[in-house]
Amino acid sequence: MRLYQDGEWFDALPPGALYEHEYEGIVMQHRNDLFPGFKGARFDPVLATQLGNVQPDMILIDHEYRSMFVVEVELASHSLTRHVQPQIEKIVSARLGERHADWLYSREPGFNQDRLRALFRDVPHSTVLLANGPTPHWDDGLRSLPGVYRAVVQVFRSARNRTILRVNGAQPEGPGEVVSVLSAGSGPLRTSYKVSVPSSVDASLEKLDAHLEDQLIRFHVRVMGAEKYLFSRPAINVPAGGALLLRSAGGSYRIEIIG
Predict the structure, then answer these.
(1) What's the DSSP call for residue 203?
(2) DSSP secondary structure string for all residues of 6-71
């Protein structure tokens, strides 16, 4: 594949053209552009898990200290079963706490230590797997792992040794703005959420796709008298209790259970 920009042609580097530490360096150098809304930092303490020890590569902290993503950087040429899958399984199973926040703060004092400690103490991390090329051959082994965002940051170089990046795949997003409080329906409405502020959902919106507990679910918007409901399609019994409907800066929706 080739890209053309500013009068130059850029060729895609094959997955094996870079050493892993070279690729990590490129990602670190451009981390703020690759992940807007987050502060990225190197994060490679030894994490002890039930599956064994693991050292990730980076961490992304959203600017309001509401969410965090542990990042593993891999070459697309790496073996899934011998390397990638065991690494990701360990990172997913890791339990972070205040001592890890202190480790990060000791190396990146630009963070707010109190907010960082509260985040690590109270909010489970998600995981980002970055590769330097498409990895459909990893699909089967990684599909069942919860909360893993898979992105491709592909490196292109010109004859003048200039570098540009091409980004594909799932991108981590912060929690986003609260659109409305939701309450789970009951009885014949148990496959729906009631929107507490009907006007918060645009009147022209007939359906929306929202992530709910690691699943992307389509909801149809229905007005019933003065009330507005979100009905899941295909129908599922939505989790009981309250929830928040959140919208990211990119316009995607997420439902967060609050009890």
Answers:
(1) T
(2) TTEEEEEPPGGGS-HHHHHHHHHHTHHHHSTTEEEEE--PPEEETTEEE---EEEEETTSS-EEEE
Residues of the chain where predicted confidence (pLDDT) is lower than 50: none
Per-residue pLDDT tens digits for 109-146: 999 999 999 999 988 899 999 999 999 999 988 988 87
Question: Environment class of residue 6 by beta-carbon count within 10 Å: exposed (0-12), middle (13-18) or buried (19+)?
Answer: exposed
Q: What is the pLDDT of residues 216-235, one digit of tens each?
A: 889 999 998 888 999 988 88
Whether 250 contacts 191, CB under 8 Å: no
Token pair of 3, please?
A: 């890209």
* Rounded CA separation 192/207 (Å): 13
| Count, residues in the chain | 259
Whether the full predicted model's pTM is greater than 0.85, yes or no, is no
Beta-carbon contacts of 54 under 8 Å, excluding residues fewer than 6 positions away, are: 46, 47, 87, 90, 91, 94
Q: In whole angstroms, what is the distance from residue 244 CA to residue 239 CA?
A: 12
